[in-house]
Amino acid sequence: MELIRLEGVHFAYPGRPPVLEGLDFALEEGRRIGILGPNGAGKSTLFMLAMGFLHPSRGTIYGLGRPCRREEEFRPLRAAVGYLFQDPDDQLFCPTVAEDVAFGPRNLGFDRERALERVDEVLEEVGLGGYQDRLTYQLSGGEKRLVALATVLAMRPKALLLDEPLTGVDQEHAARLERLLVSSDYGWAMVAHDPDLLRRTCHEILRLENGRLRPWE
To answer: N or C: fewer beta carbons within 10 Å in the chain?
Structure first.
């Protein structure tokens, strides 16, 4: 099943040169795509457009096979595709770790007990068992990134958009997360600056440069 498609997408920030110029991209369920590119190439912008947090000047975005233009049209896509932001502070806004991770399941209609069960499961998966009552603002940068990923996985999406998922994570937790992702059933698009990570975890690697995606190597 095709989850996301961008066709002929153009985008520029106000007063700046174009970032994306006629970009095409598609993510199918179960497919794992790596994305490389220089700083400022538009990798994070691509994800923000795909999820409806930015809007193209030209081109069409499809979610779950349907054109998405208005906020309400993106909501089913956001329930199906989990998005890990590059900066975890953009994703975490509750006082404690448990509240942050439970936020998504509660919005899905889970009662408090079931949501907290999901919190326990996901924190164990990412190597943060016992962190439920920790204050989010007191966590290290790497710990915040792991909690941010836990908030995404707690929704049990069909696929993931991962923007530098291992940046700032220590070697032990990075290895655990890589094993978790590779052994899962998730498909994803993953932005990273490490080609070796993408070779190990993705079916194909694309390079974003000059506003378009092309096969890497």
So the answer is: C
